[in-house]
């Protein structure tokens, strides 16, 4: 039976700034009995929401991502604030901040967190679907370096199929949301 590998020694924090940390951790391989050193990136847990408007548009964010060195298409989302009691509240807040839209129908898509890159990251997210989103105000994002665009639901699924959406959180959230979208 597969079991977690034993951690050897202590976790060494190399740097910790702006809500992100880089840690060195050592594990022992149960088969070869060798040390396995990883440099673990941690950005915490976030909420990602797939917002669909009343007229079947997906609200998508264009944002530069340094790790990819590209402007990527992503679903709205972000980390939990002190005011957020739950990740559902985080999803609703991020939707409003990044798009200016609200939804009365925000559906959690998984009880479990989803790991973004479990080989070297402890960063995870909870996916949500927001239906019948309606515009209420100008977006108020934490960063002015993003742009919100509306894409027809069928087109969003098409550009995903062509490999043009490169953000794994958005891909996973869309895939899980498909069973809840009754119009397809």
TrEMBL record:
Nudix hydrolase domain boundaries: 42-178
GO terms for MF: hydrolase activity
InterPro entries recorded: NUDIX_hydrolase-like_dom_sf (IPR015797), NUDIX_hydrolase_dom (IPR000086)
Cellular component, GO annotation: cytosol
GO biological process, one term: ribose phosphate metabolic process
Cofactors demanded by this protein: Mg(2+)
Keywords, comma-separated and alphabetical: Hydrolase
Gene3D superfamilies: Nucleoside Triphosphate Pyrophosphohydrolase (3.90.79.10)
Xref: PANTHER family: NUDIX HYDROLASE DOMAIN-CONTAINING PROTEIN, UDP/ADP-SUGAR PYROPHOSPHATASE
Name under which the protein is recorded: Nudix hydrolase domain-containing protein
């Amino acid at each position: 039976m597969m079991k977690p590998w034993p951690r050897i020694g202590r976790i060494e924090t190399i740097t910790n700034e702006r809500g992100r940390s880089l840690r060195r951790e050592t594990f022992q391989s149960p088969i070869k009995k060798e040390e396995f050193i990883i440099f673990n990136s941690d950005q915490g847990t976030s909420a990602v929401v797939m917002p669909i408007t009343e007229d079947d548009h997906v609200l998508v964010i264009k944002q530069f991502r340094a790790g990819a060195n590209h402007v990527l298409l992503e679903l709205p989302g972000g980390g939990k604030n002190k005011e957020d009691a739950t990740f559902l509240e985080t999803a609703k807040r991020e939707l409003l901040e990044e798009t200016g839209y609200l939804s009365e129908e925000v559906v959690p898509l998984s009880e479990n967190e989803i790991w973004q890159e479990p080989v070297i990251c402890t960063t995870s997210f909870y996916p949500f679907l927001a239906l019948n989103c309606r515009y209420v105000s100008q977006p108020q994002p934490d960063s002015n370096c993003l742009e919100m665009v509306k894409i027809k639901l069928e087109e969003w699924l098409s550009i995903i199929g062509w490999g043009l959406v490169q953000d794994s959180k958005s891909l996973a959230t869309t895939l899980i949301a498909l069973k809840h979208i009754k119009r397809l």
